[in-house]
Structure formats: structure tokens, C-alpha cells
């Protein structure tokens, strides 16, 4: 038995390179096929907007590809693991490594180390690229693929209720007392009947209420539209009701989402589902580390026994069972049925124990 945890440097680089090449080859094939199918279904909506053409189609592809990579990278790592280990087993390389004194964990060590690197890269990719692409694509789809303003640091199409009245802000910028509203419409209702509509290009928070400048007032019963000058509304409306009315965890980075959760906690609003998504931003990329462990059954056992295919199927079943449990846990966390930490980390810890149990009982 070797005392060194990893195989030789040459063997470790050889296995790590095999694992990476096969995983990213599977990912590239999945992205190519899925993006082509997705573009076929969405191109009609994009081109239906006047002025849109090939440039907008490529813009959509550039925003959609990061989302597809985020979703299917763990599947690719699982399939890459199974292909790598099955190939090593088929060529009797695993038998050679075990006959040299390596344990099952030592055989898997290069793949686990490589998957840790993949998990770290995945976290940075999701946090820096996928969140921005998701936020931009959601805003673009909300306006039916019409041109977007250059300002990315804003929210669009926000509704807030003020007693019987409804307030709509076309765009929201800033945070706290510095919050600014654009394209503001106030629907003044009385006894569930619309009495008047007040519109203003901008609104600012004065500390106690909202000041609308250059407003116009449309009287519904008479049908008369007249200038209203400066109008004060929403004395009971806080800025966070506009800025935090629709927090999309998929469109926010880890730091930005954590900041939004802190603001919501201060405002006394529920945050359990957002906390589950916050934890999952770490637990999701960590799923790559599980794949060599769950797919390890394909590495061991004699290939000539005729059970290599069955072992690969078992490894695939374990991997897909993890993805089902992970999605179920996150859904329960969003509903508030599970605590946030359990919703995000429960499936990972459960299948880590399952993978270790299978490996130890069958190979160690």
C-alpha cells in the first residue's frame, strides 16, 4: 500500500487531462445542440420586434449560452467521469494502479482534485458571468426583445400598492434614500373605482414621501388631462418596497444577493427562500466534486466480466438521483418547507455519504 495519497505526478496529470477533455467535450456537444433547439423556438419572437435582425440573434445566443453551461456543466462532469473511468477500466489501467498498491480513493484522487478546480472555476463563472447574462436577458424578454437602455444597474416594471392606490415605476435606480423612479404612474382609486391617473417622468424620495416633478393629472370621470406640477405621494412607502419588490436570486451575484437579504431582514420581510438560493450558489458548483465519487462504480470490477456497462448505468443513476434530490431540496427551500441550509446542502451531504459508503463497501 502506498503512503502517498496521489498516484505519480505523470499518472495524476494523465487522468486529470482525460477527465477534463471528456467533460468539456460532452459540455460542448450539449451546449451546441441545446442552444440550436432553443434558438429555433425563440428566434421568431426576437425577429418579430421591428429593427431586430442577425445581431440581436447573436446577442440572444451570447446571453443564453452561459445559462445553458451553468445548468448542464454538472451533467457533463458526471458523463465525463463515467467515460474516463470506464475507459481506464476497459484498458486495465485501473487494475494496474490497484496492483501497484493504490487504494480506490487514491485512484480517484486526481479526478477529485481536478473536480475541485472545476468547482472553483464554475463558482466564479456563475457569479461573474451567468448572473449578469440572466439579469440582462430577463429585462430584454420583459420588453419583448425591444432595445434596452444602457444602464444595467436598474430594475424595470415595478408595482407597489399604497392603500387602495397602485403605483407603477417603469425603471428604478439607486438604493435607500438615493432611490430614483422613472416613468411613474399613480392609479388613484376610491371604493375600488379608478378616479384619476397621475403621471410623471421622475420621482425622488424626500425622506418621508415621494415627490413627482412635472406631473400631469388625468381625471377619469371627466376625461380631462391637466398639468399638476409637483405632487407628493406615498407617505407610507419605503424605498425598499421599490428596490426589493422583486429580488431575482439568479440575476444577482453572491455579494449582491447577500446585501439584498440583509436589506430585506432589516425591513422585516421573509428571506428564507433567498437564503436557500444564496447557499446554493456555493453548493451548486460543489456538485462537481461529487461526480467522481458517484461515478466510481464504473472504475472497478473486471471489464471482461461483462458488467462494465451495468456499473456505468449505476453510476449514472446515482448522479441523476443527486440532481433530482438537489432540485427537490431547493424547491422545498423556496417554499419554506426546509431550512435554507438544509435545502442547499442536504442533498450534497447525503450523496457524499452514499458515494463513500458504496465505494468503501465494494472496493475498500
UniProtKB/TrEMBL annotation:
Keyword Transmembrane helix tagged: yes
Listed Pfam families: LptF_LptG
Membrane-spanning segments: 72-88, 108-125, 282-301, 308-325, 337-360
Name of the featured protein: LPS export ABC transporter permease LptG
Entry keywords, A to Z: Cell membrane, Membrane, Transmembrane, Transmembrane helix
Protein's membrane topology: Multi-pass membrane protein
Subcellular location, record wording: Cell membrane
NCBIfam families: LptG_lptG
InterPro entries found in the cross-reference section: Gal_Oxase/kelch_b-propeller (IPR011043), LptG (IPR030923), LptG/LptF_permease (IPR005495)
Organism this protein belongs to: Sphingomonas colocasiae
Gene name as annotated: lptG
